[in-house]
Design a protein that fits this description.
- The protein is α/β, with parallel strands linked by helices.
- It folds into 4 domains: 2-260, Alpha-Beta Complex (2-enoyl-CoA Hydratase, Chain A, domain 1), CATH 3.90.226; 298-474, 3-Layer(aba) Sandwich (Rossmann fold); 496-603, N-(1-d-carboxylethyl)-l-norvaline Dehydrogenase, domain 2, CATH 1.10.1040.10; 612-716, N-(1-d-carboxylethyl)-l-norvaline Dehydrogenase, domain 2 (Orthogonal Bundle), CATH 1.10.1040.
- Bound molecules: ligand LNIPZVSO.
- This is Peroxisomal bifunctional enzyme.
Length: 719
């Protein structure tokens, strides 16, 4: 899996051949080893150039191999043999040089990239560190601070930035391979020791300890509880303090620990889950590779509130013309100002001009007559949305798609008011829509595969991580979220404080606890939904609202907060206190403590101590349990899809893989036992009753998550 050729008389060209990204599988490593040895032996060969097939240098180690028993020549000695070779070795970097790919290039004596190349050490995003010498060679090449930044973030850099940092020696306008061969010819006979990074002394920098300590504090704050960023700092610190061979030992020890950690498994699972989500399938057998998406050149966006603005920005940035509609001139004007400002800020950051010519702002539905697709983003009200949908049918071309950005309303009910049910799908964006990566594409009972394919392709084009899901109340993400929120507020009733619950969740790895997130999103949003669904009405006692509604336990605490005008950050008060409306720093509010104590007294609840373990178990297992029900109901095609939704839409920590992966990692029988335990204590919370699928999987011997899909297929007929 490496091709050897002699070119220009004296150059050995070694081409890595393992499409699509020339990952360093055992076969590729063997191919490189044999080719290097051949080049070193061949007296005609005076220099060696490495490149990758299809203009992609190398995407790094083959991640799939990490989950099996690794065989073939190990990478570290292989790269060492390249560096130690007595002929100049030049890396010709086109496309990507990532992870082990860049480490291979760092083992070469020279590096040439073409203008489109991108380079990086993204191992940290897989729960690992660059363990083929990357943590020792890169600091010796570009210094401690720059290496720390690249290794702890896993950021990709352009060829131009790589040149400025000193990672590459040259950027070629055309072919990097041609340029590398010319460079190779020009350096024949020159001493190689100064080019061998491993021979360089540890890197001196003023106050190395201080720099590393600051980096450590930063990574701990940024990725709570994640081991890999911490290990990356420790390995780079070793490059500053120790000779190369000792630094390599440290790199290896740290990698061993990470490699065996559940976190690395979780993050590698997340890597593949994200890519598999794009390979959607519908219950009728239509799927990503047998359905054609339609081309979308022009789109309409109805409603320029927070969501509509973000959606319009995302579309325009991808080069799609947008007709943006509002019903009232004042709202249209303020929407126009906001969208324009967002595009201008983005363009300024990227040093380009804002694509404002792609935007039309109008009050008239008639301007939509030529669009290929419309995304409705009006207020979350079924009747209003139905009116918009039937109005759209009067002006749209017969073959234009209608998409709704509802966060949980019935897509079939909306489709039923149109003249084109097959062309109606949900596109559930997350706020702010131009920032958040997740898009749930919701297919209804009558949505055509073509409509789903079109929404998925459009989502990909605007750089979203898209997951196709079935139609049910709340779809996947919000259906599960409801139960997570329920558990959180029940724990407040039972004795916890918002601070305790949030702290437990943040220690688990969430960037923000659930109560801080609720304050950020606005408590009035859920209040309105509960009113619309009939959970709150005139028959509810305003003094002592019932804790039992629609046949199950109900916690009125969030409603009571809203009645006090505590809507969260926007009103300066919610579960926490803020200095002023709109400010972001959450402070404990003694009034909330008193409010909770009064509440418990009123209902005769004796508060008890709730541990962090209970918080995590009740929240995470309630989520996973509903995930199992979602799989039973065929609303999600796989546990991976559910996990991707939680990773990209709900801040689930990546080093925990997602709620379904977490359940598999904890052990399905443990999850089952815990749910049985909590359901016994809280029989009035039906969602804690273990799902049938969970019971079945445990009965089947708790297969690994990768096998659930086939078990679900077999089990479904028995359920
Ligand atoms: C028992 C104890 C032992 C402990 C000690 C062990 C020590 C072992 C020493 C190991 C040495 C370490 C070496 C190194 O430091 C480690 C690494 O290199 S880890 C890998 C680092 N590389 C990456 O993280 C890059 C990952 N890939 C990407 O970011 C992107 O794929 C891309 C390269 C930017 C391309 O993006 P796109 O064009 O958008 O394409 P896709 O992302 O859709 O990918 C296409 C296709 O390729 C598959 N793929 C991509 N990269 C890899 C890879 N590195 N390995 C395997 N497969 C890869 C991807 O899954 C897609 O597959 P498909 O979905 O099409 O099937």
């Amino acid at each position: 899996m490496a091709r050897y050729a002699r070119v220009k008389g004296s150059i050995a060209l070694i081409t890595l051949t393992n499409p699509p990204v020339n990952a360093l599988s055992a076969a590729v490593r063997r191919g490189i080893m044999e080719s290097v040895s051949r080049a070193l032996k061949d007296e005609q060969v005076k220099a060696v150039v490495f490149c990758g097939e299809n203009e992609k240098f190398c995407g790094g180690a083959d991640i799939k191999e990490f989950s099996g028993s690794m065989s073939g020549p190990p990478l570290v000695p292989l790269i060492h043999s390249i560096e130690a070779g007595e002929k100049p070795m030049v890396a010709a970097i086109e496309g990507v040089a990532l992870g082990g790919g860049l480490e291979l290039a760092l083992g070469c004596h020279y590096r040439v990239a073409n203008t489109k190349a991108c380079l990086g050490l993204p191992e940290v995003t897989l729960g690992l560190l660059p363990a083929a010498g990357g943590t020792q060679r890169l600091p010796r090449l570009i210094g401690i601070p720059a290496a720390l930044e690249l290794i702890t973030t896993g950021r990709h850099v352009s060829a131009q930035e790589a040149l400025q940092l000193g990672i590459v020696d040259q950027v070629a306008q055309g072919s990097a391979v041609q340029a590398a061969m010319e460079l190779a010819l020009s350096v024949i006979g020159q001493p190689l020791n100064p080019r061998r990074l491993s021979l360089r002394a540890p890197v001196w920098a003023p106050d190395v300890d201080g720099v590393c300590d600051a980096a450590l504090a930063q990574v701990k704050q940024r990725s709570r509880g994640a081991m890999a960023p911490v290990a990356c700092v420790q390995a780079v610190r070793a490059a500053a303090m120790l000779p190369y061979s000792k630094g390599m030992e440290r790199e290896r020890q740290l990698m061993d620990t990470l490699f065996r950690s559940g976190q690395a498994q979780a993050m590698q699972y997340a890597f593949f889950a994200q890519r598999n989500a794009g390979k959607w399938s519908l219950p009728n057998g239509s799927q990503w590779n047998n359905t054609r998406a339609r081309d979308v050149q022009r789109a309409g966006v109805i409603g320029l509130g927070t969501m509509g603005r973000g959606i319009a920005v995302s579309l325009v940035k991808a080069g799609i013309s947008v007709v943006a509609i509002e019903t009232d001139a004042k709202q249209l004007e303020s929407g126009k100002k906001a969208v324009t400002a967002m595009l201008q800020r983005d363009a300024q950051r990227r040093g380009v001009s804002p694509p404002l010519h792609l935007l039309t702002f109008t009050l008239s539905f008639h301007q939509l007559r030529d669009v290929d697709l419309v995304i409705e983003a009006v207020f979350e009200d079924m009747n209003l949305k139905k009116r918009v949908f039937s109005d759209l049918c009067k002006v749209l071309r017969a073959n234009s798609l209608i998409c709704t950005n509802t966060s949980g309303l019935n897509v079939d009910e909306l489709a039923a008011v149109t003249d084109r049910q097959p062309l109606v799908v949900g596109m559930h964006f997350f706020a702010p829509a131009h920032v958040m990566k997740l898009l749930e594409v919701v297919y209804g009972a009558r949505s055509s595969p073509e409509a789903v394919a079109t929404a998925m392709a459009l989502g990909k084009r605007i750089e979203k991580v898209c997951v196709a899901v079935g139609n049910c109340s709340g779809f996947v993400g919000n259906r599960m979220l409801k139960l997570y929120l329920d558990q959180s507020v029940y724990m407040l009733e039972e004795g916890a404080t918002p601070e305790q619950v949030d702290q437990a969740l943040e220690e688990f790895g969430f960037a923000m606890g659930i109560f801080k997130v609720s304050d950020l999103s606005g408590l009035d949003v859920g209040w309105r939904v509960r009113k619309a669904s009939g959970l709150i009405g005139p028959d509810v006692d305003p003094v002592k609202p019932s804790r039992w509604r629609l046949g199950r336990r109900y916690c009125p605490l969030p409603d009571m907060l809203c009645q006090q005008g505590r809507f969260g950050q926007k009103t300066g008060r919610g579960w926490y206190l803020y200095d002023s409306p709109g400010s972001k720093e959450a402070k404990s509010d003694p009034e909330i403590q008193t409010f909770l104590e009064d509440y418990r007294r009123k209902y005769g609840i004796i508060p008890r101590r709730i541990t962090s373990q209970e918080v995590i178990e009740r929240c995470a297992f309630a989520l996973a349990n509903e995930g199992f029900r979602i799989l039973e109901d065929r609303i999600a095609a796989s546990p991976e899809d559910i996990d991707v939704i939680y990773l990209f839409g709900y801040g689930w920590p990546r080093h925990r893989g997602g709620p379904m992966f977490y359940a598999s990692q904890v052990g399905l029988s443990v999850v089952l036992e815990k749910l049985e335990h909590y359901h016994r204590i809280h029989p009035d919370v039906p969602s804690l009753e273990p799902s049938r699928l969970l019971r079945r999987l445990v009965a089947e011997g708790s297969p690994p998550i990768q096998q659930w899909k086939s078990h679900i297929k077999n089990l479904r007929s028995h359920l």
